[in-house]
Amino acid sequence: xxxxxxxxxxxxxxxxxxxxxxxxxxxxxxxxxxxxxxxxxxxxxxxxxxxxxxxxxxxxxxxxxxxxxxxxxxxxxxxxxxxxxxxxxxxxxxxxxxxxxxxxxxxxxxxxxxxxxxxxxxxxxxxxxxxxxxxxxxxxxxxxxxxxxxxxxxxxxxxxxxxxxxxxxxxxxxxxxxxxxxxxxxxxxxxxxxxxxxxxxxxxxxxxxxxxxxxxxxxxxxxxxxxxxxxxxxxxxxxxxxxxxxxxxxxxxxxxxxxxxxxxxxxxxxxxxxxxxxxxxxxxxxxxxxxxxxxxxxxxxxxxxxxxxxxxxxxxxxxxxxxxxxxxxxxxxxxxxxxxxxxxxxxxxxxxxxxxxxxxxxxxxxxxxxxxxxxxxxxxxxxxxxxxxxxxxxxxxxxxx
Length: 401
Ligand SMILES: [Zn+2]
Known about the structure:
- The chain is of the alpha+beta class.
- It folds into three domains: 7-96, Alpha-Beta Complex (DNA Primase, Chain A); 110-242, Alpha-Beta Complex (DNA primase DNAg catalytic core, N-terminal domain), CATH 3.90.980; 246-395, Dna Topoisomerase Vi A Subunit, Chain: A, domain 2, CATH 3.40.1360.
- The chain has helices spanning 7-14, 17-22, 73-80, 85-96, 105-131, 138-146, 151-156, 168-175, 180-185, 251-259, 270-278, 294-303, 315-328, 349-356, 358-362; strands spanning 38-41, 53-56, 61-64, 70-71, 160-162, 189-190, 199-200, 205-211, 217-224, 233-235, 265-266, 284-285, 308-311, 339-342, 380-382, 393-395.
- Helix 3 (73-80) crosses helix 4.
- The longest helix has 27 residues, at 105-131.
- 36% of the residues are buried.
- Residues 368-401 have low confidence and may be disordered.
- The structure holds zinc ion.
- Zinc ion binds next to loops.
- Residues 43, 45-46, 53, 64, 66-67, 69 line the site of zinc ion.
């Protein structure tokens, strides 16, 4: 649904931000100056006892001096009630007595279709999770145990298992009355060229559900249990629901954690994100099976002004860092930056945490100036970027001592 021009502005003028916010906070009456439309309260988005959360009722904007949360009535409702932009607009419009514009039937149809596909995906996630408890998944469970992923963590990340069957999932879903074409459209099964029955895309793999920023299941990632598999990691294909280059693994929880002041860390894969999150770095995301894209960089900058790109300390990791730098330079704006944490050779974040503890990693994300790095002790190294005018410097980070 699209809104007519001026609708949001009208909405902003009609609702009183202090009233909207007032339902979630207790105002500090000594600090507030109502006559001036100046309101202060302990922040609803981060833990604190003092009142650093400021509402400018006349301008209709809020800002937290603690966690830097900021925005207007719509973004406040989005964050505080955890609803989508459009839902927040609807809530506020109702309150302001404004009529929501009629839904465009074509857009409504498209939204319904996406909801349907997300429901199919949700059913698949449930089924895969059940499979992880079966005897066929013994090897997968042993692998997760070897990676020291606790049963509680497996629950949190909704880890599943795809048995090595041609139509395991397909039969399970069709038995629930889900149409074959929806299963194919969700990217869960593929249709053979000869027109035969659809077959499961994920077979003999550990399954990681991929959710969008709102928490809807939009695709799956799978790690092969077969050492000879062509691809160790496999993502679902691009669908109406899933655009690889415009989503991030763990987007929603990371955004929330970053809002509470955690550094945003960009790791390489699912296992890294899970390991880092479980070690306390909850604002960690990863691109989805591709190199970081422009859209993903923009998403990251919306979450944090200075994301930390954590890369493996091998040649591929350095090459990836250069690629991100080339991508980022033309997009840089005032106040936005990137930091790089290059891990010791041969270690990924998971290994590093296990070998040296979370504290060793924490030193890497400590804020310093953009383009610089992390570990105070390491010697600076000039990096030769392929962009001739820009010579960002970094140091190797997390060098074990
Ligand atoms: Zn705050």
